[in-house]
């Protein structure tokens, strides 16, 4: 796809993530849709880890997004049983991105989504890089804006739900613009 075509695609899709943030373009993002709870039934944008973790070989039509307990996931998880064969939602801070990914992997998680711990962050994506330990991780690791992570966790708390149901990854280029439901708090 040419440079002009990428700009055209971003304009048509009206994705705030299309604005180049540190040189990122639409193909540098991964998208997932929350299916339940309904009040946050939006398509969210995340960035994959730069130099560690796996990739999605399978599209999950319905999989649980389970908030880790404790949220920073730097050690043993009290709800690790619920993360097995699901995707964990983790908060940034306390340890490296790779350490969080390995904790989720050790609990049998299929992927980890790490949201920024700055709940007012609705536009700045952090580049997740490997720490200096030479360890590896095999599951996909994604970075989510702090505002998005906060809103997902808040909705789950309000509804008394232990997890959200999501579809991941979502191919946004196949969704008509008028059907592309992004969180209203991310529009610039």
How is this fold's topology laid out?
Layout: H1 3-13, E1 30-36, E2 43-48, E3 60-67, H2 80-83, E4 87-91, H3 97-106, E5 111-115, E6 141-144, H4 146-159, E7 164-168
Parallel strand pairs: 3-4, 4-5, 5-6
Antiparallel strand pairs: 1-2, 1-7, 2-6, 3-7
Give an overview in words:
The chain has 188 residues and is α/β, with parallel strands linked by helices. The protein is built from 4 helices and 7 strands. It has helices at 3-13, 80-83, 97-106, 146-159, and strands at 30-36, 43-48, 60-67, 87-91, 111-115, 141-144, 164-168. The two termini are 26 Å apart. It comes from Cricetulus griseus (Chinese hamster). Residues 1-20 form the signal peptide. Plays a role in the modulation of physical activity and adiposity. This is Protease-associated domain-containing protein 1. Keywords: Glycoprotein, Hydrolase, Protease, Secreted, Signal.
Structural features:
single chain; alpha/beta; 7-stranded mixed barrel; 7 strands; 21% strand; PA_domain; hydrolase; signal; Protease-associated domain-containing protein 1; glycoprotein
Overall mean confidence score, pLDDT: 85
Biggest β-sheet description:
7 strands, mixed, barrel
Class computed from helices, strands and strand pairing: alpha/beta
Task: Give the SSE string.
Answer: HEEEHEHEEHE
Head-to-tail CA distance between termini: 26 Å
> Strand percentage, roughly?
15-25%
- State the low-pLDDT regions, or none: 1-26
Strand order of the largest sheet: 1-2-6-5-4-3-7
Count of extended strands: 7
- As a whole number of angstroms, the C-alpha radius of gyration is 16 Å
Helical amount among residues, as a percent range?
A: 10-25%
Alpha plus pi helix count: 4
Which shape, going by the Cα principal axes?
globular
């Amino acid at each position: 796809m040419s440079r002009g075509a990428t700009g055209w695609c971003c304009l048509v899709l009206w994705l705030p993530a299309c604005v180049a943030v540190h040189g990122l373009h639409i193909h540098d993002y991964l998208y997932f849709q929350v299916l339940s709870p309904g009040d946050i039934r939006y398509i969210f944008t995340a960035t994959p880890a730069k130099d560690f973790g796996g990739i999605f070989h399978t599209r999950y039509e319905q999989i649980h997004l389970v908030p880790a307990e404790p949220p920073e996931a730097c050690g043993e998880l009290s709800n690790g049983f619920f993360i097995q064969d699901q995707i964990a939602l983790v908060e940034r801070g306390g340890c490296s991105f790779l350490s969080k990914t390995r904790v989720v992997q050790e609990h049998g998680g299929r992927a980890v989504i790490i949201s920024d711990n700055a709940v007012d962050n609705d536009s700045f994506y952090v580049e997740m890089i490997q720490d200096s330990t030479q360890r590896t991780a095999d599951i996909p690791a994604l970075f989510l804006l702090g505002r998005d992570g906060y809103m997902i966790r808040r909705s789950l708390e309000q509804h008394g739900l232990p997890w959200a149901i999501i579809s991941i990854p979502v191919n946004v280029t196949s969704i008509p613009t008028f059907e592309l439901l992004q969180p209203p708090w991310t529009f610039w």
